[in-house]
Amino acid sequence: MSTIQRVAVVLAALLLSACAQDWSRQGTNSAQMKHDKEHCEAIALANVPPLMWVKIPAKTVPGKVDCQQRGERMECAQTPGFTIPATEADANIKPRAEAFHACMLAMHYVPPSRVSDAEFADSAADLVVGDVNAKGQRRERAALLASERASDESTARPGQWLKDCELCPALVMIAPGSFTMGGANAPEEQPSHRVSLNGFFLGRFEVTQAEWIAIMGSNPSASKTCGAECPVDRINWHDAQAFVKKLSERTGKHYRLPTEAEWEYAARAGSRSAWSFGNDAGKLGQYAWFNDNSKGGVHPVGLKQANPFGLHDMHGNVWEWVEDAFHEDYNRASADGKPPQEAGNKDLRVLRGGSWYNNAKDLSVSKRNPNAPDEGYVFFGLRVARSL
Predict the structure, then answer these.
(1) Position with higher pLDDT, 345 vs 10
(2) Which domain holds residue 173?
């Protein structure tokens, strides 16, 4: 096992340690306890998302010589040293474990011995792994469990969803946080830069044909035969703006398109990788409709696995318009994620997420697709945002 693999194993053990301990509650069977633990893991992930990162400097582990006396002869073996490269790690490990702990207490479980502050600090200092958030099936279960309906806006927690009206799009509360925006696939994705965002609501799904008809009174989609639960398509940027304006008038809430920064923050859901679930393109079919599995057309929303924030189809199905005018790079990007004061190229607006027509690379979280605001192709749709 390589050094990086060994450290990755240590990291995984740390992240899961607080959740894996032997909690107990009288009269609770193992199946119920498993469900309750998974529920609390989801609550912890939604309330304390893995989005606050700290720099961990490079660390040199010196070599050593081990000698043993064998009869009259001394035998020595040289173990070479190695350098662990500098990286970034999730700084929310401890508060997320504490959120899990609080949830279990609220459900009347008796806690085991808690991990001490010193143990967290010592372990965190040794974490070295490129993407600490790609946790496979555990995060997938958490994503499903986190997507619970809130009774109303005043009680909503990050990860939960609500509706402002029966025919309105479902909204997921996105927790405030910071992340590194951008990628290395194209010049327009650079330079990577830190962005800190306030909390906001984002559509749990892409806007459906049924929702569009309810608000706008007509259906522009080229894929009407797909059905009411399929995303509305053939939407240009001006159409999307008209929809959020009418939705705001109907509900009295401030609906809008998400900014590029908000969209990427929500799509990453704490990931530092090409897609929200990691860098393994072989798993993309679990999360997205794209050219490998779409059979040449759009599909109903929500059929694929949600990302860890409880958002479906952030990869694929239809491209999603965002607010920003297109800038050729991020050299003028702001630290708060707001579009630069200068308008950029007003003749081009940005779409995100890829579509059923595109390949895996075009579905990456950092991919930007500039188009004229009056263009509405068969794979262009939208997802709404709303201010808290």
Answers:
(1) 345
(2) 147-387
